[in-house]
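Lab notebook, bench 4. The sequencing result for the construct came back, and we need a structural model before the next group meeting so we can plan mutations. Quick request posted to the team channel:

Model the 3D structure of this chain.
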Amino acid sequence: MVKQRKRAGWLFAYDWDRRALDHLQRTVHAPAFDHAGFDLFSFPSNAALVGFDLGRFAARQAARGRRRGWRAVLSHHEQFGALAAALVAERLRLPGATPESILAVQHKLHARRLLQQVAPEANLPFAELQADYGAPIPEGLAYPLFAKPVKAAFSVLARRVDSHEEFVRHTCFGTRELWVIRRLVEPFERICHERLPQAGSAHRMLLEEAVPPHVAQYNLDGWVQGGRIHALGVVDAVMVPGTQAFMRWEVPSRLDARIQQRALDIAQRFLGAADYRHGCFNLEFFHDATTDRITVTECNPRLASQFGDLYRRVIGVDAHAMAVAIAHGDDPRQVPRLAPNAGAAASLVYRSFDAAPPPMPNPARQAAFTAAYPDGLLLRFPKRGHGLARELKWTGSHRYGIVHLGGRDRDHLRERAEHASALLGWPAPYLDLATERTDDHVGAELPARWPTPWSGPFATP
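Done. Here's the predicted structure in token form:
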């Protein structure tokens, strides 16, 4: 007789989580997962946003988990999932972070206040914008500044602004936009008002000091159990030159181990102040090589799902399997390691900065990519109409695809990435290194034009 596997709940599992989940369910000792939630980026799934109530959703899932015998619940979804999982774990008395700690970390203004208390040297000067969404922008602000929502994800509406006029344009929302913004924030707002009222309203924007364009950005991934912090690894962010848009993420990191340790210490202090004692985390931070200063961008109380595949390729660690172990209250270090299959790996991001992105690869191109790179992962995010216009306004670009690849080293990885991009008909995301290559055969198959970089405040002279 086959022993029945333990059951667990996995909320809002899409894209990278869904791929990792499918892989986990092929292993012998993986739990049987029950799913719930919806995809914010695809229709008709995202129609569930209409009337969505996070408290009622969590109550339904807790009742379901009680009936089904859940032994754990988890989510790596920033907008709703992490908080929903904490609410369900609390109701079922399962291992997990408290809802208050999730709220404290995700409410970006409250998080800045906590960071100022425990790690002021890593904080940026900040202030709350004294205006509701859609209200007039106050006069007299000091520019340039970086503006972002108190509660959001995927860099939505986060950008540098250089003048009052530019800020007004950035926050001039139509009726459709305001409807989407309010329904994205309101589920969090209701729970925050009940459980962490001192944080204040999330229907606001946060103003921060603008970081110089030359400063490099990184991601520290890890987990906390019993209040003790552990590092998983660091991922380097590479930006499209002259913009705030991510072009690719790379492993292994080039960042000095001494600086990585400093970032871990900052994460320990901040997460301790938020009373976040159980779960994965992802700390986004800048390091200025000229001043040796670390400044925190934000901290996410969840696994950065997109990076899990990179760690698996290069260091043989299955971050998603570790997250499942943490959700069960088990030691994730006991999860069996895998044999690394790459010396370097990257998450390659394909973007357009105008309303005419390259076409999606047809079946023949996709088949050619799969045949040439069976180890590659391809995600497509086509948008058009209002969705495309909104993404261009809210983020400054349209992310239309992501590819994951590995290589023997960085040079081999780049060669594979350039060829894979040519097969898909997309420009390779190596603009930062474009002047280093002169091989005619490498560039000959590539599309002739990378979409014009954003001409906004991050454009290079």
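DSSP finds 14 helices and 15 strands in the chain.
Will bring this to the meeting.
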